[in-house]
Amino acid sequence: MNTIDNNEMKDSQTPQQERLNILKQLMPEIFDEGQIDFEKLKATLGENITFSNERYVLNWAGKSDAFRVMQCPSTATLVPCKEESVDFDTTQNIFIEGENMEVLKVLQKSYFGKVKMIYIDPPYNTGNDSFIYPDKFSESKEEYLKRVGDKDAEGYMTREGMFRKNSKENGQYHSNWLNMMMPRLYLAKNLLREDGVIFISIDDNEVHNLRLLMNEVFGEENFFCQIIIRANSRGQTYKQIAKTHEYLLVYTKNDITDLFGLEKDAERNDLNLSDNIGCYNIRELRNRNPKFGKHNRPLLFYPIYVNPNVIDKDGFNPVSLTFSNEYYIKVEPYNSVGKESCWRWGKSKAHLNIHQNTLDSNLIAKKKADGQYNIYEKYRKTTYTPKSIWDENAFLTETGTVELHNLGFSNEFDFPKPISLIKRCVQLATEEDDIILDFFAGSGTTAHAVMQLNKEDGGNRHFICIQLPELCDPEKEAYKAGYSTIAEISKERIRRAGNKLRAEVEAEKAKKAGELSFDDAEDSSMPDFGFKVFKLSDSNFKPWREIHGSHQDQWKQQTIDFLNPVAENASTENMVYELMLKNGKNLNSTIEHSHNCYNIHSGELLLLLESVDQDTINYVLSLHPQKVIALDNLFSGNDQLKTNTALQLRDAGIHFKTI
Hints:
Low-confidence stretches: 1-11, 135-139, 156-161
Distance between the termini: 74 Å
Strand content: 15-25%
Largest sheet: 10 strands, mixed
Number of strands: 30
Structural class: alpha/beta
Shape: globular
Helix content: 25-40%
């Protein structure tokens, strides 16, 4: 028996490691993340043992720490970056550059229960991935948050500070990945609507743990399906098997949520019959499941009567639930051997689908070769339900690579997701005005897919994409081409995709209109191919520091500092967006600036951040806003104005607050 793999002999080993290797070959079941689980060892050797905390639960090292990191509130904000945006003032699409867990925290108040669909393509934990996680049990919340905020001189998040490579030699290999995923999934779930859906791409490395984790976060009853994707045409050799697939896990926020069907193309269209209403096909009304019959479904066993003297061009006869001179042939649900079966519809539903004396009825009959009649339902469904294996070439990562090449990119990403994969998810889960979130945006496929689908079906869906400003590999073509971070590539991909789609729409319109040019006039039917860029940033307001004990000098200095709560590098525009987010207004809220006031979403919120006088207050009162927030130092030296403002707004039923 070979006790040590040849590859392991490249480096010298300790006697302890040699024994562990032998034990791992003899009893692999006693190892957990490379370490011996002594309770399992004792149980394997037949000793009497009671496992501690014996219940069906997913547990791992650092789970409590991950919960604490998730629950720690964020003081960060999002600042607009108009120069990197496209159509900032009109677009509803959003791209956010920043650490995704902190961004998800910032979005909690404004987007709670607003997102219809989430798609993510997280690190697969292959052993070569680098990602952010609380990697030490001793690491405090403050240390983790400090590390998350580490930036280099240019403001880019540092790989050394933020990212930890999670190699398979790590003793907490699976735990680290779960510590990364768990808090993000909990925060993301909050943003989903009650009828929301989440799709997660994953492969064999963590699919087992992800299923258990999703059961914990979303509930096992909300598991929808696990789809197999043929992602690679050639396959990667894995233990003498060419691995060509990965998975797509689908969970819903609520177990009553249904997905939409996909529109049938010419190949799938089976509506090959027609009547005065339209195209249809037929399905036998009798329930063909042998478990069901008159004995246990008595209300589904009743007679249907056929008129044999009226026949349409396809040989169908009209039916009725009532015996008469015209409808006198009785049909009951018996199977081919004469055993009592039952119908699939109850009598009331059958009644609603029968139009007396017309063959446009949704229930019809047809005579069989033996002279008996079958009853059929007409179905007119123009959609179909996809199967759980998606093996079209459009879903291959090679297709995703070609799509990037077509936009002028080289091999910046090893396994980019193709547009068709995300587009199908969007088709299944959303309608025309829904929001789609992707907080591992990567190459920007989700944004591209949403814009592409909107162009194709006239929808007005919006995306929110979140991507770390992770430094690019200096050996990759993107870095050499001047892209410092993955986020920069994502943004450029969305710009190029939007330009390409816009040009296609204009070309299609010009073709339809002959020589008529649309260059000089803005067409209102042009889909939204723009996006707003925001970046995660420190708050525009000074943080209140915790001072322990009775350090009078420190308390005094902090009080003096907060006479002006605005941070040194704050700008008025950035404060507007921060206060919008903290007061539950989304990033697409309308902002009007007049009379030194920022009017958010037609009076839902009014911000006074520049100057205040009685004329300003009179203007505020004329707008009848729901809430007004003002900087307290604007009233400095004029306590009477502040007092009068508070009284006037209170009497007008307007909530007033100063900071």
